[in-house]
């Protein structure tokens, strides 16, 4: 196991009815900006629950934060924060609203030239302060509710970039599984696959003798495989919804990644597919991961075999045969929840591959758990998905 | 899954060399009381590492905190804290030193009549404030390094009682697995069994459809069974030490107990064996747990069968046969690490059983995950261990 430091002070309020506890968590003496997305909170009753729970608080609203939240949109919110002297943010939505809210929180107090540098110059800019954030989660998927990560898209340059800071961890997150009851299939499926691949990025690397982290990761994968389809089949299955929701949070709150190598190459490539073609984040991951497993079958061999055996019961055949079967099983799982896994499925032309590899070339950036995946490997990964 | 609220802000610094990072975590402007136990920190080099890392800090020392820390001893520390205007506590030791330090932290700011009420009137007294605590852990076992729990013994009345408060969670805990290298077999074995039974108290109850919590619990049990004996066999096996240490922390930092019923009956009965006979905490648990499993085989049936199958591979025979085998396997594991499991092994006379049941009678207290274990059941549990 590697050395590590871990601190996750996010308070989780989990279960049905927990939105009603908001008043215990929010500060009475602050001006709050309630952020939300495309308006689903008005249809599923969450907005009404939030309003009922926050009577007497000083709240203004900012809606319209998109999936893959736009820098351009978020900067409008930053202006409102400054004009209205907002000093607390309440995110009511899914991972995109919360990621966008984290960016607003950091940008509002950013002292550099241009807030886009928070993402674009991530390695140089260290975010030490941000407005405090609370969250009501309406979509289990990204894990943003219990971490300090965010991803933001700049439309003008077709860039999708991440940043992270302990300063943007929510002070609290309300996780009421009943919010899942009204989600469309597409969002549930995205959430299952997103959480699944968050685990894979922290698990499918190389062994460092960290059996507890492995078992926790495998526990989340098993639970997603078991409970995810139940949620898809019956949107009112509260217990399955709860198990799915808690799994998605545990998939990316930092815990399973402590003391082990992490990959995140699938995400880095996937973000480019979203940036160029607007494909849902989870779907880009489902495209890239099988290619990543295929191309990295040597480097990841031990962990792919362990994953294949413990998750899918694959223990017969040569290593290569077992790896092939394991990739097939992984693809079949994604397809079984309705997520397609090839580039043609999303009408992505072959030319996109060159655009993506050029971008990595320009950035001079290598990715993966050994930082040894460059443009050539990325080309192979994506060509395998044509 | 039940509703729950979870917040664990303890910062963990894990790995070899991490004691050297103490200066980054401790406040420069506070007067620190370094608390320790019987003096092993002077032999194993931990004291020297702590002193080297804290040059320039204003630190005084208080040693002699016993295993099962004594109220009488801790109150001496409280006097020193008040006289010397100490405003930060640094615990350097195992779970007992840290539990004792938590009590000092709460008692120093306690405004009631007598600080013993923190434990004795636990249900009435709510600890809202305490001195801040940092910890360097020298013995993996109790999980105290990442929770707000403590157990204190009052010698004058032979009482061993617990309290808990978020206010006594350490601000940080340093976990350097190298501290294990110098531990005697007895303490390693105690740590393995203590952590194992912490998991069991949160796992071996009744199912509430919380598969992720179950798998995390099972992951810790598997890891303790696998890595614990390696540590016993080779005290310098850093990797096994690290896996054992992280498992013990994860066993009782609250996470696996979220959303599920919890028992703690084995602990409540075990505490009485320590109070009357001074038996090591972990050993009392190893005595009581098999009796608890036996007497509660109906109430705990589903979870005992699941535990037997997933942990010990027991899947043949009637339910009762499988439960018997599962109890035998559990006892055999404890014995394999050198922990005896019957009352005669510790020369506890049969009369003690009556003294313990009278005490529960007097307190009018029922225990277990359904609060339905009273004196009669406790008598049966302990008689089974004669």
Would you give an account of this structure?
2 copies of one chain form a homodimer. Chain A has 15 helices and 8 strands. In chain A, strand 6 (149-154) and strand 7 (159-164) form a beta hairpin. Chain A is of the alpha/beta class and 386 residues long. Chain A folds into 2 domains: 11-178, 3-Layer(aba) Sandwich (Rossmann fold); 185-383, Dehydroquinate synthase-like, alpha domain, CATH 1.20.1090. In chain A, 48% of the residues lie in helices and 12% in strands. In chain A, strands 1-8-5-4-2-3 form a 6-stranded parallel beta sheet, with helices on both faces. A two-stranded antiparallel ribbon of chain A has the order 6-7. The model of chain A has no long low-confidence stretch (mean pLDDT 97). In chain A, helix 7 packs antiparallel against helix 8 and helix 12 (301-312) packs across helix 13 (319-336). The first copy, chain A, is globular, with a radius of gyration of 20 Å. Chain A binds chain B through residues 1-18, 209-212, 215-216, 218-220, 222-223, 226-227, 239, 242-243, 246-247, 250, 255, 258-259, and chain B through 1-18, 172, 209-212, 215-216, 218-220, 222-223, 226-227, 239, 242-243, 246-247, 250, 255, 258-259. Strand 1 (4-14) of chain A pairs antiparallel with strand 1 (4-14) of chain B. Chains A, B: Belongs to the iron-containing alcohol dehydrogenase family. Chains A, B: One of its GO terms (molecular function) is butanol dehydrogenase (NAD+) activity. Chains A, B: This is Aldehyde oxidoreductase. Chains A, B: Residues 189-357 form the Fe-containing alcohol dehydrogenase-like C-terminal domain.
